[in-house]
Amino acid sequence: MLTGKQKRFLRSKANPIQPIFQVGKGGVNSNMIKQIQEALEVRELIKISILQNCEEPRHAVAEDLAKGAKAELVQVIGNVIVLYKESKENKEIKLP
């Protein structure tokens, strides 16, 4: 689990990042989770946007993605989810 200080640090790191995935009408599926896991291994910190046509509530989508990718949910702000997972091979972010 991340502490409040770590979450604040990660939120500031995530600010300039553009979302690289979109969750739409289909919702969350296993293929999307697999791609998100791979992206987290490379980047550690990613943003995912939730489109207007997504039928699930955004917090439910965020929890599904975090659980599926075994990542930490840093933040849900508006229609954007921020996920963090420490990389095994490409570790760049040092948490406070």
TrEMBL record:
Domain (CRM) ranges: 1-96
InterPro entries: RNA-binding_CRM, RNA-binding_domain, RNA-binding_YhbY, YhbY-like_sf
PROSITE patterns: CRM
Keywords: RNA-binding
UniProt name for this protein: Ribosome assembly RNA-binding protein YhbY
Organismal lineage: Bacteria, Bacillati, Bacillota, Bacilli, Bacillales
